[in-house]
TrEMBL record:
Protein's UniProt name: Cobalamin adenosyltransferase
Organism of provenance: Ramlibacter aurantiacus
Top-level class of the enzyme under EC nomenclature: transferase
Reaction it catalyzes: 2 cob(II)alamin + AH2 + 2 ATP = 2 adenosylcob(III)alamin + 2 triphosphate + A + 2 H(+)
NCBIfam families: PduO_Nterm
Pfam families on file: Cob_adeno_trans
Annotated region described as Disordered, given as residue ranges: 1-31
Amino acid sequence: MGQRLTQIATRTGDDGSTGLGDNTRVPKSSPRVQAMGDVDELNSHIGVLLCETMPESVRELLVQVQHELFNLGGELSIPGFELLKPEAVAALDRALAEHNAQLPRLQEFILPAGTRGAALAHVCRTVARRAERSVVALGAVETVREAPRQYLNRLSDLMFVLARVLNRLDGGDDVYWRSERLARAQDPSVG
């Protein structure tokens, strides 16, 4: 693995390039750097979400996710390296099934709203989708293992489910989209 930073302001990136973990330099506009940045941003948003009140099991899950995202960022920073294990994807699948089983079936689309914690989880969901798209774009020009893409896909789904869990902490509910089309279908006198 690359050298650990002992100095933050190195000035080596002033020319528009950045160093990867294998000590190669690439433009800061490269798909690899974009993917690394999106994963880092996602991890930061999860850190903000962790400032909110939540069940301890959800907190522990999100802390583990942060560690896995750090592994994913490390893997992205070293072409050909593997840090994120397939077991991490399986752990998200289990968490997704466990938390989703506790929720009522969705009857309508929901808005990314509700409690502050739920809204932050929705932000994490959308950033996870962007990070997934960045990893897919990177995979179109360089070899990328399946696990990073799969992990981000599952994580986005999990963040949607956790938003619903967080909306119900104190007896709340999701914020449902008011579809005019559905309202007319349910009551022809509307609209």
